[in-house]
Amino acid sequence: MSETIELGPLRLDAMLLAGLLSAAVGLAMFKIWLSRSSLQGETNWMDIALNAVICTIIGWKLAFLVRDPELLWERPSALLLVRGSATDTAFGFLLACAYVAYAGRKRNIPLKKLLDVWPYAIIPGCIVWTLLTDFPYAIPYALLLACVYGILFRTGASSRIGSGETASLSLLGTGIGGLFVSLFAAYPPGTLPALTFGLTMLQWLFIALSFIGILMPRKVRING
């Protein structure tokens, strides 16, 4: 994906635009799901989600100040010109997670319910993000995420918010499925991913998600 998009005299940050569009889609799908779920009117989930998106953007855009704070004094324009890296994005995501945890604690939301809610916003947003930033090579990952999203409804997990089932299925599906897809997915020409103990960082991330999904406590359904 190119770094900038030119619209006449304007030069826009392509990654920021992709992030904003992905967040918009994620929030829209989240709102649709909320309107049809038992959580409607229970908590102002949309406010929490929107604030989490803002935290992610702030972290992505300003994390460089943590590494190199004097840059702000030397080049104030860096606030506009410097774009976040993958590490900065992770920092923004952690900042958003910290905010969500704080908001959940402040509102006395059970942890399992808090974890079960967010896949309905994150997964659609990630589908759009992967397609916008790495098309067509990210198509297999986008299809995987779409399947995981569909499974949440097919299994009825979407109607059992608070059981931990949605969070567990999302992590396991993305982790195990993503690891499998990564073994066969093509890379852009000239791309040689760095390996750590024989695996890419993305593959290690999928393994971590799988283990978290396995270890996550969830209520067991008993039929009869």
Question: Any low-confidence stretches, pLDDT <50, length ≥5?
Answer: none
Shape: globular
- In oligomeric terms, what are we looking at? single chain
Portion of residues in beta strands equals under 5%
How many angstroms does the end-to-end distance come to?
53 Å
How large is the count of helical segments? 11
The radius of gyration is 19 Å
* Helix share bin: 55-70%
Give me some keywords for this one.
224 residues; 4% strand
Describe the structure.
With 224 residues, the protein is mainly alpha-helical. 65% of the residues lie in helices and 4% in strands. It has eleven helices and two strands, in the order ββααααααααααα. Strand 1 and strand 2 form a beta hairpin. The longest helix has 22 residues. The termini are far apart.
Produce a short descriptive summary:
The protein contains 11 helices and 2 strands; from the N terminus they run ββααααααααααα. With 224 residues, it is mainly alpha-helical.
